[in-house]
Amino acid sequence: MSDKPLRLLLGFDYGTKQIGVAVGQVITGQARELCVLKAQNGVPDWSRVEALIKEWQPDAVVVGLPLNMDGTPSEMSARAEKFARRLNGRFNLPAYTHDERLTTFEAKGQRLREGQSGGYRERPVDAIAAALLLQGWLEENCPG
């Protein structure tokens, strides 16, 4: 953890086509979805990321780590870790990763309970998945 107290965090559900973004507060231990950024082969529009960083001024970022179900790294894990390093390098913010297994599955379940069936391309769940992984990180690292 950094020397600076953590108050506000941005969470990223990294993907090759879309990156879900969420915001979380340490004091409340709560995270909520913000938006979904388009990506080209895993590369976001960095100006959009920069705009979010400037708007929210997070103390750190958390990137979901897509591990295999047995806990071993997946091909996407390396790409997510690289994305976390890029966020750290570009914006000089502490960047953490968090196991995100089942967050997309859980996010789709949440949408199903709200009445959505399919249509995840038009109404993606990436931001919900980002909120779930950030919520998990907060619960693990900042217990109230």
TrEMBL record:
Biological-process GO terms, alphabetical: rRNA 5'-end processing
The YqgF/RNase H-like domain, residue ranges: 7-107
Subcellular localization, as worded in the UniProt entry: Cytoplasm
GO cellular component: cytosol
Main location: cytoplasm
Record's function text: Could be a nuclease involved in processing of the 5'-end of pre-16S rRNA.
Similarity comment: family membership: Belongs to the YqgF HJR family.
Protein name as it appears in the record: Putative pre-16S rRNA nuclease
